[in-house]
Amino acid sequence: MVRVKMAILKTEAIVLRMQEYGESSKILTLYTRDYGRLKVLAKGARRLKSRFGGVLDLINYITIVFYQKVTRDLPLLSQADLVRPFLHLREDLHRLALASALVELIDRTESGQMPNPRLFKLLVGCLIGIDESGNAEVYFDYFTLHFLGFAGFRPRLRRCLHCGQKPKGYVVNFQFRRGGYFCENCSSNNQEGGLQVSVATIHSLLALRDANFTTVGQFSFSQTIQREIEALFLYFLRYHVEGFRNSTSLEFLQRLDKNNLTQWLQSTQTCKEEISV
Q: Is the pTM of this model over 0.90?
């Protein structure tokens, strides 16, 4: 008799996505602390009296036990327990849109079963911040900036691409292809379009980059700076992160703030042309 090896594994996870499977089951896409992005089969999860209840809802922070067989394509979910349901963001569309954007970013970019405990900790911490903080946007900013670093696309914020000097004056011209900016004095050398943002926004991003979970909650940006940060990140993600140009969560976030961010983005025609290349 041939014995099939089976491992019983346990880890923490964030629920990224789910799809129906068969008549009563679900396939869950999770981002886990120890196994990276992982798909599991939750048998019977769609039944009214399922033992999983609402534990498997999107964006929930859970612990799971699953069985991994070498002969089975999908691991089988055995147990799931709720760690944190993020109740506040489910009652606030703006918080939910911010959290959904982070979850979608992980879902679209992380490869299967490549663990990154630091990124998992960053995701959980920022979801908690979005859920609990009076300034949820700053946690979206913090996650996105540090995620770009993990992905190898960290923006070059310290000095001008052309002259190498720290930014002076009032505005800079950000170049997404190059990942940095031309200062106000050097912008005449730029023939590539780009997005104009204030020097104050660059200084805010530098401060955010050097912050940690203890200090980031103390940040509070003006509406103008927050609008510029979000616009810069939206274009940066769409330019550098494959598969993120048609992000449903980012589009929803823009619609929620249509009187501010969307109209401002639409007025930046040179940036739109650069992204479409």
A: no
